TrEMBL record:
It comes from the Bacteria. Residues 1-21 form the signal peptide. Coiled coil: none annotated. This is Tetratricopeptide repeat protein. Keywords: Repeat, Signal, TPR repeat. Transmembrane segments: none annotated. PANTHER family: LIPOPOLYSACCHARIDE ASSEMBLY PROTEIN B (PTHR45586:SF1), TPR REPEAT-CONTAINING PROTEIN PA4667 (PTHR45586). It comes from Sphingobacterium detergens.
């Protein structure tokens, strides 16, 4: 389910049933005002007083759906069918539950049951099916239009139909048709605030967020008691904050404004139930407002049996605020064990994976007392159990990204953090994961470059471990492992070398060529070298010269000419050896190694 649908499902009731219309009308008015707590209370009383009226069950089930309780809603819809088999609209509710569970065939079957025996004027099931296809986790706006058009042909006076048509056209990005449909709703009721809000949301869909805010604020000022306007303002600020290129400061500013609007929404709706607070916490999760979430989750934790989502909030807070990664893992595992699978969101897998990685990533050892502040600190040592758990965490993070590609940015940030902490294997695995998503150039080249550099460092350490103090290979299996790792580095760095993305090449090409050549050098047998590194170092030299960056990359040129010269020296090609070693002295006249080899050639 998309963030906005999970957080902000707006279920405007249609005209279903006539029995006890006043009481049902009260419930529908509460739903319209998004006071779902009040609506639930009224509908529960109606179900008790009028147990044979199936329409009451349908609306009660809708309230459970708003509160993300699909299984409870399904139970209510089934009770409605048992109590009143003629109220087949409850099949629409069951079909929507199937859509939530991504069972499209099951949904279509139940929708067919709901519409099999409709009279000439029976339009309500068609309306509700259309809205179900709009609100489903994977919306099918075209199919929604099919049902809503049929509903409109049967009834031109129910304002819910053009409102739903506006939502469907908006989903199809048909802004003009959506605007017209909302206008049709205002022809029925010129004071329809929902129609005005719908037109403002069209502007938001065009990413004109400042204009959308202006329009929504004007609507709120004109009709301050209409709660959904504030919720849409909160959603607008949230979407605005997710725009590419938004600075951290702007992101924080926009989401703080969103939280303020959501508080106004709760106040205007008048819903003080725990379910309302849970929906608020959901908004805080998506807008990453962890300070406020901490306050809310501590209150909700007093009622841990109310909803397993509470463990989500506690887990996120333990990870973000207290940095207690083991506790975060404990809370999230509790959530997964208690929550229905279809209620799990991609961000849950994200945090589960991050907590698994963080809890199993020992920190580098601190420098010895009195050591130089620039002294190299040994990389942390991972046990086989640590490594297995980290890989499990990475698999969970992949689930998260597959569910929500926007999470790629957070994975990239985690990878950089692990790289800076010298947790190289974890960083490399995360960069490798990000690099798999080739349709997202924002992180693609960063990921490939840093995966390559990290695997180079890992492979170099593995290769060093295969030798004794004299430099002789004493562990061929370790050497083979190092070669495999270094070849992985070469593969990732080649992505940078071969891309036609100018920005990526300007940023990374020279470094990529350097580490690629060094990976090949380290993987070679220097007692009898094959020399795969020679053309790589030569391309590095040519690239530096072509780009006119010789002064900036003097050390790279010295290394490149040195190793090409030494290769030719070992192959007894003294003219080429001399030519390259002299290039070293042109750049670095004091280079003692080059002088020594040139003296030997003489």
């Amino acid at each position: 389910m998309t963030n906005s649908k999970l957080l902000f499902s707006l279920l405007l009731a249609g005209s279903v049933g006539t029995v006890s219309a006043q009481s049902l009308k009260d419930a529908r008015a509460a739903i319209e005002a998004e006071n779902y707590g009040k609506a639930k209370t009224i509908l529960q009383q109606l179900v008790t007083k009028q147990p044979k009226n199936g329409d009451n069950y349908f609306y009660l089930g809708q309230v459970y759906l708003v509160n993300d309780r699909a299984d409870s809603a399904a139970a209510i819809f089934n009770q409605g069918l048992t109590a009143d088999p003629k109220a087949t609209i409850n099949n629409v509710g069951l079909g929507y539950v199937d859509l939530l569970k991504k069972d499209k065939a099951g949904a279509e079957s139940k929708f067919a049951l709901a519409t099999a025996k409709l009279g000439k004027k029976d339009y309500e099931p068609l309306l509700e099916i259309g809205r179900a296809y709009i609100e489903t986790p994977e919306p099918d706006y075209a199919k929604a239009l099919e049902y809503l058009t049929q509903a409109k042909a049967k009834n031109t006076k129910d304002i819910a139909i053009p409102l739903a048509l506006g939502d469907a056209y908006r989903g199809l990005r048909e802004g003009s048709l959506a605007y017209t449909s909302y206008g049709d709703a205002m022809d029925i009721d010129q004071n329809s605030v929902k129609a005005k809000v719908g037109q403002a949301i069209i502007v938001r869909g065009a990413q004109a967020y400042d204009e959308a805010v202006t329009q929504l604020e004007a609507i709120a000022a004109e009709t301050p008691a209409y709660a959904p306007t504030y919720r849409e303002l909160a959603e607008t600020y949230y979407q605005w904050s997710r725009m590419p290129g938004t600075t951290d400061e702007k992101y924080l500013e926009l989401n703080k404004k969103g939280v303020a609007q959501y508080k106004k929404y709760l106040e205007a709706a008048g819903d003080n139930t725990l379910e309302a607070k849970i929906r608020y916490a959901d908004f805080l999760v998506y807008s990453r407002q962890y300070d406020e979430l901490k306050t809310v989750s501590e209150e909700l934790a007093k009622n841990p049996s109310v909803d397993p989502k509470i463990y989500r909030y506690l887990g996120y807070i333990a990870f973000q605020k207290t940095k207690d990664y083991s506790k975060a893992l404990e809370y999230l595992n509790q959530m997964f064990s208690k929550m229905e699978k279809d209620r799990v969101i991609p961000l849950d897998y994200m945090y589960l994976g991050m907590a698994q990685i963080a809890a199993n990533s020992p920190k580098p050892a601190a420098p010895a007392a009195g050591a130089d502040s620039t002294a190299t600190v040994a990389a942390p040592v991972l046990t086989p159990e640590n490594t297995a758990n980290i890989q499990k965490g990475i698999a969970d993070i992949k689930k998260a990204i597959d569910g929500d590609k926007e999470l790629l940015g957070e994975v990239a940030e985690l990878a950089f953090a692990k790289y800076q902490e010298q947790e190289l294997q974890t960083a490399a695995s995360l960069f490798e994961l990000v690099g798999q998503y080739k349709d997202n150039p924002t992180y693609l080249y960063d990921a490939n470059y840093y995966a390559g550099e990290a695997y180079f460092q890992i492979g170099s350490k593995e290769e060093a471990a295969s030798k004794n103090d004299e430099g002789a290979i004493v562990d061929q299996a370790q050497k083979d492992k190092a070669i495999a790792t270094l070849n992985k580095a070469i593969g990732f760095l080649t992505v940078i070398e071969t891309t036609d993305n100018k920005e990526a090449q300007d940023k990374y090409l020279i470094n990529a060529l350097y580490y690629k050549a060094f990976s090949a050098l380290t993987a070679d047998n220097l007692e009898s070298p094959k020399g795969d590194f020679v053309p790589m170092f030569q391309k590095l030299i040519d690239t530096i010269n072509q780009r006119g960056t010789q002064e900036k990359n003097k050390s790279y040129l010295v290394d490149a000419y040195t190793y090409i010269g030494l290769f030719h020296y070992m192959k007894q090609d003294m003219p080429k050896a001399k030519q390259n070693l002299q290039k070293v002295l042109e750049i670095d006249p004091t280079n003692e190694g080059a002088k020594a080899y040139l003296d030997a050639i003489k």
